[in-house]
Write a structure and sequence with these properties.
Layout lengths: L1 H6 L7 H17 L5 E6 L2 E7 L5 H17 L3 H10 L4 H4 L13 E6 L3 E9 L3 H21 L2
Antiparallel strand pairs: 1-2, 1-4, 3-4
Helix pairs in contact: 2-6
Length: 151
């Protein structure tokens, strides 16, 4: 997952890029009939949000909790949770962060820009955590391909 994060470092991230990423996530989710909510932020500014059929307000609560983990650690929520499990513990037991405001479950990913570091987050909530994470990664891979092919 660390290699995945390094590989998905973007050359830039504009408002238009956020729209491209968000609409790609919506297209993928709709094609799979996935009942997800999607959130993209740069810093504290929400640049994109969508709630698809079957999603609930609980998905927005999960988005906030997973996003806060990325903001705190600078790594994907799945990677953070995995690191705790690899140490024989859990995020909830050992992080010292309130589990009502932070969740180290897959689906939140840092938006990392070359030369700037982590500048935002992209989050999907509504599927099992590995599927949330995979959907984000798939969309970021597509955005990266677009940005790398642009003049």
């Amino acid at each position: 997952m660390e290699k995945q994060e390094r590989r998905l470092t973007l050359p830039r991230f504009t408002y238009e890029d956020a729209w491209t990423l968000g609409t790609r996530l919506v297209e993928v989710a709709q094609a799979r009939n996935a009942p997800v909510a999607i959130d993209i932020r740069r810093g504290h500014q929400q640049l994109f949000h969508a709630a698809l059929d079957g999603s609930t307000p609980e998905n927005d609560a999960w988005i906030d909790r997973k996003r806060r983990v990325v903001e705190h650690y600078g790594h994907s929520s799945l990677l953070v949770g995995t690191r705790y499990r690899d140490r024989g513990t859990t995020f909830e037991d050992s992080s010292r962060l309130d589990p009502t405001t932070h969740a180290a479950h897959g689906g939140a990913f840092p938006i990392r820009v070359t030369g700037a570091g982590v500048i935002g987050t992209v989050v999907v909530s509504g599927l099992p955590q590995l599927e949330d994470h995979a959907m984000v990664v798939e969309a970021l891979e597509r955005l990266l391909a677009i940005l790398e092919s642009a003049p």
